[in-house]
Task: structure prediction
Amino acid sequence: MPTVIKVTGLRKNYGELRAVDGIDFEISRGECFGLLGPNGAGKTTTVKMLTCALPLSGGDITVGGMSVNKDPRGVKYILGVCPQEVNLDPDFSVLKNLIVYSRYFDIPYAEAKNRAEELINRFHLHDKLERPIEDLSGGLKKRLLMARALINRPKVLVLDEPTTGLDPQSRRQIWEEVRGMKSNGLTTLLTTHYIEEAELLCDRLVIIDAGKIVEQGTPKELIQKHLDGKGNLEDVFLKLTGKHLRDE
Amino acid sequence: MNNTCIIKNISYRAWYMWRRNIDVSLVTWKTNVLPPLLEPVLYILAFGVGLGAYVQKISFDGRAYDYLTFLAPGMIAVGIMFHSVFDTMYGAFIRLRYQKTFDAVITTPLSAEDILAGEILSGATRGLFAGAAILLIVTLFGLAAYPSSLLVLPLAVLAGLMFASFGLLFAALAPYIDNLNLPIFLFINPMFLFSGTFFPLDGMPAWVKLAANLLPLTHLVNIVRAATFDRLHAGLLWDLLYIVVLTGAVAYLSMTKMKARLIK
Ligand SMILES: Nc1ncnc2c1ncn2[C@@H]1O[C@H](COP(=O)(O)OP(=O)(O)OP(=O)(O)O)[C@@H](O)[C@H]1O
Ligand SMILES: [Mg+2]
Result:
């Protein structure tokens, strides 16, 4: 399978802090790739550089052969982004959020309306169509963020903690969707703290800590390598990143 | 992704950001449409009818005018300023810091420059709407000469771009929303009072005149007043030039500063 995302020597400094400190990985077409790490590891910073929301301090990222440094617009046209922080437009209803967002991708109104309706059904948002965003529960907001990320029919989906704060039902529903999209050949980058989520969804993953990759492989490989095939990915995670609290 | 390509990075997509902001104004249209229409009526009552009863005639440019006639173009200019500067100053600050709107849009094909140009355009649209609304009211009271007063409309767009750029600059420089009181106190309120809006600058001491001529609103008032009085003359080209140059400079500066804040 051809490489869709290629990250080389990626760095981000915030003053003295090296939030991302030289990481490399590649994601093939159709793969679901996990970015795991404790709080403050540099997951969101990596995602933001990939989605052209942050300039790089060093290295490069290419998406579909386009560099985020040279052709950010080209990259952004093929990305679907579900951010960690909810940034829906509070001034608009559910439907209008999707319509306005689709405009940014040059999608004509009639087409946008079709796509929005399809996504509204798929993510079970129809009860709340005309509701202002602040009336929605956390789970619904995440579902709407997911729907919004798909409005431009992206080739690459970037999900930054898509299930954090969700109840088991909503979480399962998001998992179903990610699986479904994977079977449609969508390439996905997923960050998460839920190790079972990574075990369930990710073909391959990297574990990062303090801006550096500490381990990579398939979930099976990691369990095999570090625990002789006994135990689960969470034990591997704790073994590699230690038990102390982060971001203090 | 550096500042030298601010202009190169602006595309037609700036209109998508403009559309978004206009759509928001339409959702809350009652609170946006009524103030520019009602404010001038209040001014006319307070200053024209109330204060005007004590002020006989105002002499301006060698002629005598009713106080209300003198005040009308000042109201138009002030309306353009307030509506466009506040739209970006508070609006953009809130979208940046609280609503995270820019964070959402920056991962779509819009560049930071598209977003910020869209902000300035929608601020200018507010200015145009306010200018047109006040002109309408003033016309109904018989205080504007035509066709020269029609010049107010393109002027409102230009001045709207200028004041919206100032607003964006203040939003970019303010660490907290409360800091925005400072430019209001130091810049906007002095302009409101000392730009020849309420009284002619002719009688003021030389240093006040000089200071007033540094303020952008003074130049807008000069042209708007000449338009509503039907007294346009070539000397106003200097006022126009001042506004054009300042608009370009502040738009550039505000986008540079805001971009640095948006993507760091
Ligand atoms: N704008 C910023 N300025 C300074 N430091 C920052 C900024 N954004 C993030 N950081 C720091 O960079 C480091 C990495 O943060 P990042 O948000 O990428 O972590 P994360 O892996 O996404 O964590 P979490 O799991 O909590 O979301 C942290 O130490 C964070 O405090
Ligand atoms: Mg994060």
